[in-house]
């Protein structure tokens, strides 16, 4: 309990240090500029409070979270089955690893012009780009989980004449769930980074769209408030993913 309290204090200290560096940066590099005052912590927090009182902000948050959920769900639907197959077959791993590593190293944002030309503007290209970005950590972690399974459990299922479905549902899936959750946490971090530029693809709602709107209106303190809010929401999503992993890892077997 004592160590837990210290970790909270140190974490708060790091946040206050970050706030101080923000204030110092604006003071040093924006000295003599009236525009720089709009990017200061004081102006940002005032605008953030004003934004939190507007109903439209919550609609933008809802739309963005919905896109994250759809992109993550698509990545799970593709990544988990592929990861199970690749982890179970050395030949399939050899056949797919070069292609997957090649695709994984291509930035999802580089596909933006292509998917817009093929799918048009709207939610569909955003869902594709988010799923493309999130599928790799889920796939690779699932495959790693299959390869790390205790072979004695698999031998036991064969000796008991378990069906493939029983082996999958009672041994393999519970055994790789921790790895899948690790992949989900990594995927959420990637999704949150990719989401904002994706929402600049001609849509009319979402946090990325709202940032463009504040820029066009020259509302720079609101822009900084949105940047701060995106950081807070991303932090909360990551904390939720970590809590889910801890709950699973401490659950009775």
TrEMBL record:
Q: Where in the cell is it found?
A: Cell membrane
The transmembrane segments are 68-88, 100-120, 126-146, 190-211, 223-245
Residue limits of the ABC transmembrane type-1 domain? Answer: 61-241
A matching Pfam family: BPD_transp_1
Q: Where is the signal peptide?
A: none
**Per UniProt, which keywords does this protein have?**
Cell membrane, Membrane, Transmembrane, Transmembrane helix, Transport
Give the InterPro entries listed for this entry.
Answer: MetI-like (IPR000515)
What membrane topology is given?
Multi-pass membrane protein
Query: CDD domains, from UniProt?
Result: TM_PBP2 (cd06261)
Per the similarity annotation, which family is this?
Belongs to the binding-protein-dependent transport system permease family.
For this entry, the protein name equals ABC transporter permease
Q: Which organism is it from?
A: Geopseudomonas aromaticivorans
Taxonomic lineage is: Bacteria, Pseudomonadati, Pseudomonadota, Gammaproteobacteria, Pseudomonadales
């Amino acid at each position: 309990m004592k160590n837990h309290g210290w970790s909270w204090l140190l974490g708060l200290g790091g946040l206050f240090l970050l706030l101080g560096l923000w204030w110092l940066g604006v003071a040093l590099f924006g000295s003599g500029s009236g525009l720089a005052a709009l990017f200061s912590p004081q102006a940002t927090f005032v605008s953030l409070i004003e934004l939190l009182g507007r109903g439209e902000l919550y609609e933008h948050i809802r739309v963005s979270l919905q896109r994250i959920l759809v992109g993550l769900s698509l990545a799970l639907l593709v990544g988990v089955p592929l990861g199970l197959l690749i982890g179970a077959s050395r030949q399939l791993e050899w056949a797919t690893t070069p292609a997957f590593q090649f695709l994984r190293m291509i930035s999802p944002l580089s596909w933006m012009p292509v998917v817009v030309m093929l799918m048009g503007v709207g939610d569909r290209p955003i869902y594709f780009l988010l799923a493309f970005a999130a599928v790799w950590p889920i796939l690779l972690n699932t495959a790693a989980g299959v390869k790390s399974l205790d072979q004695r459990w698999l031998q036991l299922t064969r000796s008991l004449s378990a069906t493939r479905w029983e082996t999958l549902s009672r041994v393999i899936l519970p055994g790789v769930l921790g790895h899948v959750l690790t992949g989900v946490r990594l995927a959420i971090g990637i999704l949150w980074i990719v989401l904002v530029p994706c929402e600049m693809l001609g849509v009319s709602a979402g946090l990325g769209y709202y940032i463009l709107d504040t820029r066009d209106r020259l509302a720079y303190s609101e822009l900084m408030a949105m940047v701060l809010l995106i950081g807070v929401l991303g932090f909360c999503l990551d904390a939720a993913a970590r809590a889910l992993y801890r709950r699973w890892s401490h659950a009775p077997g």
